[in-house]
Design goal:
- The structure is a single chain.
- With 423 residues, the protein is an alpha/beta fold.
- The protein has eleven helices and 15 strands.
- The strands form three sheets. Strands 1, 2, 3, 4, 5, 6, 13, 14 and 15 form a nine-stranded mixed beta sheet that branches.
- The longest helix is centred in the C-terminal third of the chain and has 21 residues.
- The two termini are 30 Å apart.
Length: 423
């Protein structure tokens, strides 16, 4: 595969990502949350690209767009066939960059387009999957769409509300989906040979090593825990400082405590983040009586992650009691550390070596659909260098050449893919 192909792949990827980025809930920034009209428009565009690339296209009950490229000799309309799964997500965070998730979907489509142009098929089918709930930016769920494909969707997620009070099951119906059909989205285990994903790194390691691509070894485990602190509202001018039950001050101490816990565990690459906080009643002259925030806690292995959450629970209870407040915690997302399959890691490493590239291996601190898909089959990821390691930000950037190399590496991976290596 020569240089011009790599540049063409990269240029095609950039153009497609730009077209997807134009589909947003907001005119001046990219925001595309799960099951919104904008998500539906993006899904339609992706489905169109899949069809143009030679795939049959379907959409499941969670809105995942599924492009199917049949195996050699496969009869038209045949479904029960072993397949390699390639995917990522098309939902975004609020005020997002255009590469996170979308690059993996576009790379899969471009790889299939390459094989279609050469009338090339394999002894296995290939499905390209465009998931819709990887970011968890709308409902109190994360990875629900990939979990449905993996047969791990939980019905308790259906009543979960977004900020506008819309339940997940209602949003599904509004989108045109059937909540009763979720079970049918599950792929039989015997049909799933493996799941692989191309994704920007969202960190600085590859750029620091001057490597365009890298092979992921595992994805860090993650908790998302909703914390509710209750105190007593009072007049800002008349309640003495020593007599206050200020829920916001208590919550602030709790956030600092979370940071301290994470800093104490560098060996587990632990990180703690509070990125959202709701203060009530929300008036400048009233002592806050209720504060809600979400703790995002991650680590490279599960035992220290569980220990840290227990320590955090203990500390926040002490802080609340000391300030005359109460606190409740609800962990609504618990995603275990997921190890990438060595045989698939090696497959990506070989594909990089054939392109004359180094094959550094690294851990992903960000969560990905592979964590849900690991409940169905072996998985692996190929990371793409991103400028400054910046993601979840409009300045997120991957170069045309790096993206072209990623598509080329995915093509080489597929050509070399042999399910027999699994055993």
């Amino acid at each position: 595969m020569d240089g011009p192909d790599i540049e063409r792949f990269g240029a095609r990827a950039e153009a497609m990502l730009e077209e997807l980025a134009a589909i947003s809930e907001e005119p001046d920034r990219l925001t595309r949350r799960f099951l919104t009209p904008e998500h539906k428009r993006a899904a339609h565009l992706v489905g169109q690209w899949m069809a143009e690339a030679g795939m049959s296209v379907a959409e499941d009950a969670l809105g995942t767009v599924r492009g199917h490229y049949g195996r050699e000799g496969e009869a038209a309309g045949s479904n029960a066939v072993p397949r390699l799964l390639i995917g990522s997500h098309i939902d975004t965070v609020i005020n997002a960059g255009k590469y996170d998730g979308m690059l993996g979907v576009v790379a899969g489509i471009l790889a299939i387009e390459h094989f279609r142009d050469r009338n090339q098929r394999f002894g296995f089918a290939i499905d390209v999957l465009a998931f819709g709930d990887e970011e968890g930016s709308r409902f109190p769920t994360v990875l629900s769409s990939s979990a449905a494909v993996a047969g791990a969707f939980e019905d308790r997620w259906l009543p979960g509300l977004d900020v506008d009070g819309i339940a997940l099951d209602q949003a599904m119906r509004d989108y045109g989906l059937d909540p009763q059909a979720v079970a049918a989205a599950a792929l039989p285990r015997e049909e799933a040979l493996a799941y692989v994903e191309v994704h920007i790194e969202q960190g600085p390691v590859l750029e620091h090593q001057d490597a365009p691509l890298g092979v992921v070894t595992s994805i860090a485990g993650q908790f998302r825990t909703r914390v509710t602190v209750r105190g007593m509202a009072g007049h800002a001018g008349t309640v003495p400082m020593a007599m206050r039950q200020d829920a916001l001050v208590a919550a602030s101490e709790m956030v600092i405590s979370a940071e301290a816990i994470a800093r104490a565990h560098p060996e587990a690459a632990m990180v703690a983040t509070v990125g959202t906080m709701k203060v009530m009643p929300g008036a400048a002259n009233v002592v806050p009586d209720i504060v809600e925030f979400v703790l995002d806690l991650r680590a490279s292995s599960d035992p220290p992650r569980f220990k840290a959450l227990a320590e955090f629970t203990h500390r926040v209870e002490k802080i609340a009691a000391a300030r005359g407040c109460t606190v409740t915690l609800e962990t609504y997302h618990d995603c275990a550390t997921a190890a990438c399959a060595p045989w698939l890691q090696d497959g990506f490493a070989r594909s990089l070596e054939t392109l004359g590239l180094p094959a550094p291996r690294l851990v992903s601190g960000a969560g990905h659909d592979g964590q849900a898909m690991s409940k169905l089959t072996d998985f692996a990821m190929l990371f793409v260098r991103c400028k400054g390691g910046i993601s979840h930000n409009p300045v997120e950037f991957a170069s045309v050449r790096d993206m072209g190399l990623a598509v080329a590496a995915l093509i080489r991976f597929i050509e070399d893919f042999d399910p027999a290596r699994r055993h």
